[in-house]
């Protein structure tokens, strides 16, 4: 049919055919997207299906079977480590009263004798006796000097000081709090 | 009757609109909806699955490598050394109350410090399972408390305390109470119950560190030394004498 015969509707038909062409293009694009997405899905399916995971999992099972022979050694090593950790904890937290006592004995003049020693929960109580007041004084001075030089005690107190007439000796009790 | 009417209606709609732009638009909308459905229902889970598979492949390869490394490590490990280290470590911290070792440690310390032991008092405490339950969450080791009466001066007591710090099972002197002649010393001997061992094959294993090895060597030196039978050779000069008969 000749389009020129219809004098009124020619422009409208041209517009309609142009929009139909556009719609067809959009339809082709939509179809392409549909096929593209389907293709992508298929490729992903292939990638997942052909992954080396099942082979690797079998290899892992085999390796675990092999290492199970060494579980005794593994347990021994784990126990050694466990014991050592706990041992370190004990060694780091335990109080070394011997070191403190050695320090005190090293600064103690020979005229002084230790007549009592009580250690309980970081509290160190030392009872000393001597006929020489000078020796006791030297000992106290040495304790003060030692406390200044080394941080061994947080508190040092002379809790008792008396003179025993029968023995003719001075008795002093020193209480120290160990750091 | 209704079905027939419905079908004819659909046909009627199809033939009426099949060449119209509405049909084309409907077709495109349908494809877009189908695309979105496929993308969200199928492709996205597949992408997630692919990523998880890839990650799992990498992780599995790493695990296999680690297991193989561990196998190589254990094949080169000297079993005798490990057993010796295990023995030393369990002597330092026994699994259960080890009274033999405790008495041996006390005796050794008294011998080395030159003091004599008078009385032992063992405060055994609760049974193992109860104390284990109690101490499991508290990070506190169970122990056996022993009070021992030591005869000797303060220097001997000091040496005894020092020696006790160098003995296994690991001990801690907690209380001292004494005079010039004898001293009551309370010692805690620690122990550690058998832990729950979980085999993690894919965790890299390594030998104990140098510091730990040194500590074990130190513990080995602190162990109870069995009494050596000293064969005193009686020197006799009779060999030089000429027999009478």
How would you characterize this protein structure?
The complex is a heterodimer of chains A (179) and B (245). Chain A is elongated and about 140 Å long. In chain A, a hairpin with a 4-residue loop joins strand 3 (153-164) and strand 4. In chain A, strands 1-2-4-3 form a four-stranded antiparallel β-sheet, covered by helices on one side. Chain A has helices spanning 10-49, 53-67, 71-93, 97-106, 133-149, and strands spanning 113-120, 123-130, 153-164, 169-178. Chain A is an alpha+beta fold and 179 residues long. With 245 residues, chain B is of the alpha+beta class. Helices cover 55% and strands 14% of the residues of chain B. Chain B is built from seven helices and four strands, in the order ααααβαβαββα. A four-stranded antiparallel β-sheet of chain B has the order 1-2-4-3. Chain B is rod-shaped. Chains A and B meet through helix 1, helix 2, helix 3, helix 4 and strand 1 of A and helix 2, helix 3, helix 6, strand 3 and helix 7 of B. Strand 1 (113-120) of chain A pairs antiparallel with strand 3 of chain B, so a sheet runs across the interface.
